[in-house]
């Protein structure tokens, strides 16, 4: 037991190494740009002020989004998806798989669940002892089920999912902007140092290396950001891109694709003034999502077309005001 706890403690410590590496690189880039380039190399005061102003805007937005991507806790399913004590006891005592399957079907009748396991059974997490909402997956690193899980990112030491996917996208975008601004403003001084128009000094190494690092991160981040832009346009997670969600009629990669505009609004919300800021504006609560076709938007397990939340009255885990704007009910079908 003590050995296991020690290993887990070491694992938690080592999991922060990628974050520490990124933080060190960013802090060094701040020193190299602000002091070595702007204070020690630039001679034009107006140019120096302009560079410092824009740089600090990019730097603050990068740090803000990175912080939010790291320290925003991933959302987990509410208690409605957990088995009650009696249901859990009945499920564990039963040894026949077909009866266990029927028990889960009976429990899921009043839940907004449209996807299935590959076998067609209800998606159930033995570790968390809950019925998985659509797009929810168990993370072996976080050791819990994550709503709309995209992937576990070591560079933010966090699961990227419903609660912080917008922050992760903004982190990538501001990282690219940060690299582009550094590269474009450093390039001319890189050339001057390279051809020795500027005298050799301690600033030379920092300026030369700063351009290489910025370009290296720009190339790698651009491919990653482009891939996630494609995922947002298709309304898929990274996991769904590799393994299509299974509906009653079979696997369908575009099951949650409701059109580019509404896909975008699901992640960034309707208030466009907040799109560029790392504040949570995503639609819904992560437990259910609009579906592409009306036939799929009706849960075949729901008795008498009962809808999510109708039988429970107020729930301490529910979100105020969402009952009137249930995205799984009000669906416009695209031709």
Automatic annotation (TrEMBL):
Main location (coarse class): membrane
Pfam families (alphabetical): DHHC (PF01529)
Keywords associated with the record: Acyltransferase, Membrane, Transferase, Transmembrane, Transmembrane helix
Chain spans, region Disordered: 304-335
Listed GO CC annotations: membrane
EC number: 2.3.1.225
PANTHER family xref list: PALMITOYLTRANSFERASE ZDHHC16
The family this protein is said to belong to: Belongs to the DHHC palmitoyltransferase family.
Name of the protein: Palmitoyltransferase
Species whose genome carries this gene: Electrophorus voltai
């Amino acid at each position: 037991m003590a050995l296991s706890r020690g290993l887990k403690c070491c694992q938690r410590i080592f999991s922060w190494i990628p974050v520490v590496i990124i933080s060190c690189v960013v802090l060094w880039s701040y020193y190299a740009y602000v002091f070595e380039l702007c204070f020690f190399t630039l001679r034009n005061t107006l140019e120096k002020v302009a560079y410092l102003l824009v740089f600090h805007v990019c730097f603050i937005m990068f740090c803000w989004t990175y912080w939010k991507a790291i320290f925003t806790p991933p959302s987990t399913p509410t208690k409605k998806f957990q088995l009650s004590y009696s249901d859990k006891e009945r499920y564990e005592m039963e040894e026949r798989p077909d009866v266990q399957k029927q028990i889960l079907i009976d429990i899921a009748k009043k839940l907004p669940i449209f996807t299935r396991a590959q076998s067609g059974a209800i998606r159930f997490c033995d570790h968390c002892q809950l019925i998985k909402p659509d797009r929810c997956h168990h993370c072996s690193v976080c050791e819990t089920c994550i709503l709309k899980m995209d992937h576990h990112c070591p560079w933010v030491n966090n699961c990227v999912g419903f609660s912080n996917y917008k922050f992760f996208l903004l982190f990538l975008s501001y990282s690219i902007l940060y690299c582009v601004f550094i590269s474009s403003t450093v390039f001319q001084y890189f050339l001057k140092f390279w051809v020795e128009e500027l005298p050799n000094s301690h600033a030379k190494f920092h300026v030369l290396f700063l351009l290489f690092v910025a370009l290296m991160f720009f190339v790698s981040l651009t491919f990653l950001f482009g891939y996630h832009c494609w995922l947002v346009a298709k309304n898929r997670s990274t996991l769904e891109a590799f393994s299509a969600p299974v509906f009653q009629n079979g696997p369908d990669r575009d099951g949650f694709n409701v059109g580019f505009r509404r896909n975008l609004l699901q992640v960034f919300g309707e208030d466009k003034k907040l799109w560029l800021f790392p504040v949570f504006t995503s639609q819904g609560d992560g437990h259910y999502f609009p579906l592409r076709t009306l036939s799929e938007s009706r849960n075949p397990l729901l008795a008498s077309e009962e809808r999510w939340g109708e039988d429970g009255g107020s729930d301490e885990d529910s979100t105020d005001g969402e009952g009137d704007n249930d995205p799984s009910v009000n669906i416009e079908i695209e031709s």
